[in-house]
Please model this.
Amino acid sequence: MCGQDNSDELTTCPNCQAPMPKKNTSISSAPPQKIYERYNAIKEEADKALNGEITPEELAAFLNRTKDILSVKEKEIQEIEIPQEFYDDFVEEMNTGFHGIALFKEGIDVMLAYTRSGNTEVLNQGLDLILRGNEAINDARMINRESRRQMEEMYLDATSFM
Model:
């Protein structure tokens, strides 16, 4: 490449005839949507408990099922084999995601204390921890998407010179 500034529409440089890098139009270039479904479901159940629509025992059962699901997902992630040569590329994503899972679980434990005590302040503290955990998990997804986008760009740049 000669360094000439060219428009995105060109497939070759008019100055040196080198092929222009292909524009990334893959689905991963779109920013991922943040996910709040699990948090929203927990908040909805907490609101039902506060309004007397469900018992504290029913809330505890829901929270324990949710924690079990989260534990299974965490174990599945931990069992993913990452080749050593790519490990450094995934460290930030994994640390952020596991931190989010830990906050999520801690929040569930705090909410379970509400089911024994009835202290609404404890319930809100648990929801806050879960929301923070959810945000960290979303951040991990964003890191994953950005890493994938960078790898695709490197691949496209490398293949455009062939």
Summary: The chain is about 70% helix and 0% strand. Residues 50 and 73 are 29 Å apart (CA to CA).
